[in-house]
Amino acid sequence: MMEGARGDAGAVGGPFNERTEQGRRDGLLVAAIGVMSGALYLVGYAAQRAVFLNGQSANVAGAAVRGTPPDGSRLALELGVYWGVTALLFLLYALILVLCRRGGLRDGRAALLALSFPVIFNVGLLFGRPLQSMDALTYVAHGFMGGGGLNPYGTAAAEIAYRDGTAGLARELASFGWLPVHGPSPYGALWTWTEVLAASLTGSVAGALLLLKALVIVASLGCAVVIWKILGRVRPEDRLLGTLVYLWNPLVVVEFAGEGHNDAVMILFVLLSLLFTVTARPALSAMGAVVGVLVKYLPVIFAPAQAIYLWRTRRSTRSLALSAALALAYGLVLTAALYWPFWIGAGTFAAVRQQGLPFLAPTPSGILYWLVLHAAPPEEAAALTLRILGVLFLLFVLVVGWRARDAAGLLRACAWISLVYLLVVSAGTWPWYAALPLALMALTPRGVFLPMALVVTFTSRLVAPFSNLVNNRFAGWDDLIDVATVVSVTLPLAVLLPLCVLYWRRSTDEPGGVGGKA
Questions:
Q1: How would you class 501 by CB atoms within 10 Å of its CB: exposed for 0-12, middle for 13-18, buried for 19 or more?
Q2: How far apart are CA 238 and CA 444, in angstroms?
Q3: What 3-state DSSP class applies to 89?
Q4: Of the four listed, 41, 66, 88, 176, which is most buried by Cβ atoms within 10 Å?
Q5: What are the pLDDT digits (tens) for 123-133?
Q6: CA distance 104 to 98
Q7: pLDDT digits (tens, 9 = 90+) for 41-68
């Protein structure tokens, strides 16, 4: 998997076989950072659980779900511990990256330790319950719905709490902290079939949840392997650094291993598609993108940049056209086969359209929506805002895609596309949304992208407890939405803009650079 890395700064010499006295000391430092991080993940999990239970009170399908009595002073302490642990985890994460950039992981023992600890963190969190999001439990609900005759695209997940035949399922889900709040599925058909398979194989909420979380962890670790392979081809000197940027990130560890979000599966196929793109295998590249879209629809935003790159680097027009036609044919057949049992026309994608609607918030999309509201009623203003953002974003994607003259330029372009989508175009953001930009910024772990990988993920983790505060009635979304968007969107934008100015001059000498030399 990891043979042949170069011995440059931040890379691993040979097959992890370099041994030095300084390397032994670096290995001890990595071990200390790993042990401290592991202890912090345990404390953080305990703090998350305390916040999750503090004030929990619900009645689902006639069954009472209770945590501990609401206590504001205890909540303040619990949140303080959570935020303190989060800050320390990111500090240790930054220390590992600094050590790698300075060449401290060239020793084989230190490098292997650095790659091993995050795997241990992932496996350890596999057996914990989701505490900050109900999405993984809703995946389980979709699985039992799809296998029991209810279409997840036409029936809201919340409805199972009010149906006689599914009330037992709702009560079992509620014992894990699930609430009947989600609508129809916004996910692609491949993920829906994955949910159904997990439910049918296990037959229980606990079993399906464990199986889906295990799949997500395997996908997340697979992302690290593909990042390693891509960088080995495009930026060998940054192979270890880029892999650690993704693998050690606390957001990736908690949101995927702890919370079980399916974004890890989508990201894996995005990265595989890019790997096949830079290795000049257009049919496999297109199929990777199609499969990613069949998990979640977001990977479509990278298609124009990849298409431009494949056209520019084609060996022959005929070969490229044949590959594209084959990929299109296979993709259509696969898509039709997966969607056919659930197909309800345009209503199949109703939840996706609903999620994309803009709302008033201190974000670029929210501000644009506010301006358009002065000239049109809400429904028309929302549609016009989406059209404006869509056109501007498409132009941006085409420009950065056209400027990508080589494989490194394509990776930078995709990182910019994901970052701009998250911070400018997206109507709203959840903490795990930052994982896709992180994975793509890990492919260019220099310049603007290295500090932004830290900022975007750290601020996202800061607002992760907010959903529990709403569910346990300590606050309403109207009270927290502005705070959440300022912290996770406005603050990263405020950091990004001066960073772009700082690195802009360096990019002028590198073809395809956009806002920062890698």
A1: exposed
A2: 8
A3: helix
A4: 41
A5: 999 999 999 99
A6: 9
A7: 999 999 999 999 999 998 998 888 889 9
